[in-house]
Amino acid sequence: MRERLMGKRPFQTGKLEKLKQISWYKIPLFVVSLFLFILAITLMKDGAKALIPLIQNSLRLNNPINTLGFGWLFAYLVMSGSPVAAAALTFLDAGVMDMANTFTMITGSRLGSSFIVLFIGFVYVVRGRNRATSLDMGLLSLTVTASTHIPALFLGAYLLRLGVFESVNIQAGGLITSLTEFVFDPIVAFLLAYLPRWSLFIIGMLVIMFSFSLFDRCLPQMTLKESHVGKMSTFVYRPAIMFLLGGFVTMISMSVSVSLSLLVPLSARGLVRRENVIPYIMGAGVTTFIDTLFAAVVMNNQQAVAVVMAEMVAVTVVSLLMLLTFYRRYERTTLLFISWVTARNRNLAIFMVTIFVIPILLLLI
Questions:
Q1: Deepest of 37, 103, 184, 354, by most Cβ within 10 A of its Cβ?
Q2: Do 256 and 231 form a contact (C-beta atoms < 8 A)?
Q3: Half-sphere exposure of residue 348, counting CA atoms within 13 Å on the CB side?
Q4: Closest Cα partner for 248 from 240, 257, 259, 239?
Q5: Is residue 2 a part of any domain in this protein?
Q6: 133 vs 102 pLDDT, higher one
Q7: Rounded to the nearest 5 degrees, what angle is found at the Cα of 119, between the Cα atoms of 117 and 123?
Q8: How far, in Å, CA of 117 to CA of 312, rounded?
Q9: Helix/strand number for the chain, H first, E second
Q10: Neighbour tally for 111: CB within 10 Å
Q11: How many CB atoms lie within 10 A of CB 172?
Q12: 334: region left, alpha or beta (phi > 0 left; psi from -120 to 50 alpha)
């Protein structure tokens, strides 16, 4: 009996060590991030109502082309697409925009969301790193996102016009809605007692950006050894698997920036090349709408749910068509374009000017 107990000690010790390695503080941190996310949506909903005159008279966001450019530039400004997509849904809920304008604003937010990856690449270049290696991830992210989301823009708009998703009914439920009103409505009322209503939208934007930052900290920081990716290096050469992996990682993390950052150690060790990243980014572009869909459900707005569903289905269809039909040609064309951009400073300057001029022109049309 004593020998049996002695035999169990190493196992129990190892189990205790694994429990000690778990970052238990991340559980309440996740709860806080979720609380702040719902609070931010509530604040933005109330604040958006006061922005109706500004948007209709000053910004004149009265057609899908304007809102596409606005969402694109807005994502540049806040260095993220998810808060802009959530803002678009609150504009829809407040009656500032219709479904078509909201749809294109969300698309614009995704076109601009990849800029943060390119910006980080520029920081590495300034620090003396190789220009092509540092900028590849950002350039690929921007190029792949644009080449999938722009065709999906037309398909999704067509699906919206047909009313395909109007019958999709995803609701938060009466209990959750009542709980949300009980917890968050008093906070909104308190702020309105001291602040103008329009300021709630700005506060909500700041809160939602902070909530995403907290959520990123909740994710486990796995090294290459811990995730055993090194043993699975052969799978990165299969576009379908990389597509699913990109979608899965982004769905879990609810952040394209986080999912793309996981590629950095793989690239540094030579396990992932540029062509392997392309289907990964395509998969990430599909499930990046999960947080936007959650925001639509929290709002209990059927039109918002329909808009997000149209986005997800359209991007999924376009991405799968590329993977199953002409992927190798698409891959070669994309890599040739990236090589051209990084070949000369003039080419890079043309690219940078273009990605800023296009959304500005769209906003002014």
A1: 103
A2: no
A3: 15
A4: 259
A5: no
A6: 102
A7: 115
A8: 22
A9: 19, 0
A10: 26
A11: 17
A12: alpha
DSSP state of 262: T
- Is residue 151 one of the residues assigned to a domain? yes
Report whether 282 contacts 243 (CB < 8 A). Answer: yes
Of the pLDDT bands very low, low, confident and very high (cuts 50, 70, 90), residue 126 is low
Q: Which of 91-100, 150-159, 262-271 has the highest mean pLDDT?
A: 150-159
Residue 4 predicted with pLDDT over 60: no
What pLDDT digit, counting tens, does each position of 233-250 carry?
555 567 888 888 888 877
Q: Once rounded to an integer, what is the mean pLDDT over residues 342-358? A: 88
Task: Check pLDDT > 50 for residue 87.
Answer: yes
Tokens 């799978």 locate to 235
CB neighbours (10 Å) of residue 354?
9
CA gap 120, 95 in Å, rounded: 37
CA gap 119, 342 in Å, rounded: 15
Q: Are 97 and 58 in contact (CB under 8 A)?
A: no
Q: Kindly state the tokens that stand for 312.
A: 């997800």
User: In which band, very low, low, confident or very high, does the pLDDT at 310 lie, cut at 50, 70 and 90?
Assistant: very high
Alpha carbon 54 to its chain centroid, in Å, reads 27
Residue type, 257: S
Please indicate, yes or no, whether the overall pTM of this predicted structure exceeds 0.90: no
- Coil vs helix vs strand at 347: helix
Better pLDDT: 345 or 259: 345
Q: For the packed helices 345-364 and 327-343, what is the interaxial angle rounded to 10 degrees? A: 110
Range with the largest mean pLDDT of 64-73, 184-193, 260-269:
64-73
Is the CA virtual torsion 205, 210, 211, 212 positive or negative?
A: positive
Domain span at residue 311 reads 24-364
Q: Is residue 229 assigned to a domain? A: yes
> Is 273:231 a contact under the CB 8 Å cutoff?
no
Instruction: Tell me which residue has tokens 């196992």.
Output: 11
Number of domains in the chain: 1
Q: Residue 346: is it exposed, middle or buried by C-beta count within 10 angstroms (0-12/13-18/19+)?
A: exposed
